Amino acid sequence: MVDALKKLRLGARCGFVLVLILASSKLSGQEINVLYIGNTDVPVYFGARQGLLEANAQGEFMGVVYRLTAITEVGSASVIPVAIIAAVDAARLEQVIEVYPHVPILNTILKDTKLRENCDDALFHIPPSTAMLEDAERQWRQHAPKSKARAYTWHRTFRKYAAAQLNIRFMKQVGFAMDNDAWAGWAAMKLLADTIVRRPDLQGFGLVEELKTNLAFDGQKGIDMSFRETGQLRQPLLLIEQDKIVGEAPVRGVVNGADLDSLGLVFCAK
Amino acid sequence: MYMLKFKAIKVAVIVAVITATFSAFGANPPKRIFVTNEKDNSVSVIDGKTNIVIATIAIGNRPRGIGIAPDLSEVYVAISEDNVIAVFDPNTYEVLRKFESGQDPEAFAVHPNGNIYISNEDDAKTTVLNPENGSKIAEIKVGLEPEGVAVSADGTRVIVTSESTNMLHVIAVPEHKIINNILVGARPRAATFNRAGTIAYATSEISGEVKKVDLSSGTITGRMPLADDRAKPKDVLLNVDESKLFVAGGRANCIFVLDADTLEVQQSIPVGKRVWGLALSRDGSRLYTTDGASHQVSVIDTALSDVIATVPVGKFPWGLVLYE
Questions:
Q1: At CA A132, angle to CA A254 and CA A106, rounded to 5?
Q2: Given CB atoms, is A220 within the 8 Å cutoff of chain B?
Q3: Which domains does chain A have, with CATH numbers?
Q4: What is the pTM of this model?
Q5: CB–CB of A169 and B143 under 8 A?
Q6: Which of A193, A257, B84, B241 is deepest in the core (most CB within 10 A)?
Q7: Helix, strand or coil for residue B215?
Q8: What are the pLDDT digits (tens) for B295-304?
């Protein structure tokens, strides 16, 4: 009931007309449109395409087809998206939020901690914030004071959990290794599909709520990930020194290895 | 005072002896247990009566999945880094032949007709192999990173779990067509059927849960998150009367015992570290577990719900089969 009221309120705020258009677009078939906004000659886009392939590998069994439409200019899309994967700078991200106020938007390249502090309702952040990266490096230095390791989201030599399988699939597909940005693009598309396939009836804020409360996604990093109220994806990070993985954060022994909230900002300012 | 203590000890000893005798009398352990040691490139052979390793077979690089022919004439081992299935004689331990399995073989199941159903993790396929000559009988396209394989008792259904697509694929045999796809929790690792083939149970590693699936409707009828948040459940088995479910708890270092109907966790039996593999003796009296990071096999008396022996094997035991 509370949920329904919340949706009504949000619906009123965003305009019912658009919500209705979205609902009908979803009912017209099992085609799910995701919009990619950004350059298409960058790793994050290749990652998103890989995510699309994998989403459709799943969709094929469930009668769902995902389409990823790429545009470079905000507002030039001919489709009404269920979600948006954004690989744009902060100024253009603001425009995306304005044009699509009620559609889940997944930021895939910006690391600014400030963006997380803004706590925008429908904005999600796949890459770790600068604060998360710094916390990971600080934890690591407590464990290995002389190490100059830097924190990464992903690495081409990552094998544990099922990281090796994803690295192999990506390399086979595009001919170069998966990096931080490519992982973020892949993760954005894959976690969207993993959520939508379970609840294809949801859109707009319903989908936003589902992503925030019911994410079932491990990102091939061996742990159940979820979104913070800031929109940030909780995730473990890798410590890389001389192009080699030397550790993982949260750093076991320094903090509880499962405490993903030991990295970065956790709550929105009330 | 001393007398009382002495009497108490005496009673305790008698009770223990009676329990052990009763338990041993009722039990019919398998003749031998074969265990793949992932990081020792070997198979340990355990004597079922004494629970002692009596032989070690050099088998190939990174052995994982293991299965036995329905007539018990041969044992099959997936040799992950050699991309082959090795076949050995369960009586002489002689390696008889090897045949190609596709890239990085891991989990497989042996069908009552003798064929092998194997997951090809990197190719999103399940391949059906004839172990006599390694010929390919069929290939079935499944989801990403297929892993666990289970065959129904009557052989008409096979379930394959795809870890990155979060699904159970139900395959009809002999048609080799997928007849149902069921979404489950994140990273499903293993599944098992009830004897009638009407219900399946599956574990999901990342969501740390067990799901119960009605196979006639393809719907999930039960879900139980395992209390321990370290639990990364893997193998799952029903006991003989199908009233209980045994689940290997992974990093929870225990076997969870669930009510097969309600999925309520009734008990957890502590075993070694990172327990993955399970095998139950035909009479249901013994449950064997591979405790990967403890490099041992635990032997559980299912009547006592307790470990009665731990058997040191090679490094990182992965799977096991019983010869009985």
A1: 140
A2: yes
A3: 2-128+177-236 (3.40.50.2300)
A4: 0.88
A5: no
A6: A193
A7: coil
A8: 999 999 999 9
